[in-house]
Amino acid sequence: MMQGRPGPATKIATAAPVLRIGAVSKYFGTFKVLEDCSLEVAEGEIVTLLGPSGCGKTTLLRAIAGFWEADGGTIEIDGQEMARVPVNHRPVGVVFQSYALFPHLTVERNVGYALRMRGLPRAESEARVAAALETVSLTGFENRYPAQLSGGQQQRVAMARVLVMEPRVLLLDEPFNALDAKLRGTMQVELRQLIKRLGLTSIFVTHDQEEALTMSDRIAVMRAGRIEQVAPPDEIFDRPATAYVADFIGTSNFWAARAEAGAVRLPDGQSAVTTLTGDVRLMARPHNLRLEVGDAGPWRGRVAFHRSIGPLVEYHVDMADGATIKVAAMRQSIDRPVADGAPVSIRIVDPALCAVYPH
């Protein structure tokens, strides 16, 4: 029981995906909520559906679970089409953002509820519940009620209740929403480590990009019912495929430029390589910009606002052309931040890290 499955290190690269979503669409009335969504998830992989409210990520998760029926396309688990498989027979487990624990049942009875409904022998049920509670580090909490638990402990109970069913695919619908910021960060790391240790194939839904970057092997960024880009977190952040992804993930600076002869001239006089021609949009992350005190450089402005964020200082610089550029600099304990109102110039650290998009 609860042995898990081989992790990514042991899977064969050519193995069939555990979960395959093919051109799924969904309508609510005449409104198209999902459009041509396709995604494959490998054994032991955590893929996050990331996007703003209303983009379709929860709808896609619920279609996988079987709560809603897709109006087009296919959903397969281990090669089996799920369209005619009832919700209670699908090999999936769902952790909801509300946890949905029974307040009148103890931890042990909450975790074992579904096993009892399936009529498992008492000895087997008790063994599986004990193993699940040990997995989430809740041994000794069997006789407590949900109201006697912290938010993090309640989340672990919700996770144990899913794990005890030994699902093929784990679905997590914004499971950290009820937690405070500090606990949320701790639980993100803890939950990812648990999922990877068990080798569970997982779909994680969130609107929080930090959560997505922490939890995921790959991220599927969604926009208006479509999947805009699917890639590992570093690639999503460093090489966003579209201006929408660049703007949604992290902090970005955009400005208009013109591409000619395979290059686009940057505001500080350097050049970035591109295959585009004509009017384009340039993007640079705040950490790819360097702030220099004084107005000796070609790209000049004044500090409008600055704030310290842990080891970083974020500067908002009003440029001569009217644009406001954000710059991130390491906070040095021996130096004071550049004062608001001070004249500065900006240089791009590495032109190769600038992205170029069609205008």
Describe the protein's architecture and organization.
- Strand 7, helix 5 and strand 8 (201-206) form a beta-alpha-beta unit.
- The chain contains eight helices and 20 strands.
- By secondary structure, the protein is an alpha+beta fold.
- A six-stranded mixed β-sheet has the order 6-7-8-3-9-10, with helices on both faces. It has a five-stranded antiparallel β-sheet with strand order 13-12-11-14-20. A five-stranded antiparallel β-sheet has the order 15-19-16-17-18, with no helix packed on it.
- The longest helix is centred in the middle third of the chain and has 18 residues, at 181-198.
- 35% of the residues are buried.
- It is globular, with a radius of gyration of 24 Å.
- The protein has helices at 57-65, 107-117, 122-135, 151-163, 181-198, 209-215, 233-238, 243-248; strands spanning 19-28, 31-41, 46-50, 72-77, 80-81, 92-95, 169-173, 201-206, 218-223, 226-231, 253-260, 263-265, 271-273, 278-284, 289-293, 300-309, 312-319, 324-330, 343-348, 355-358.
- Helix 2 packs across helix 3.
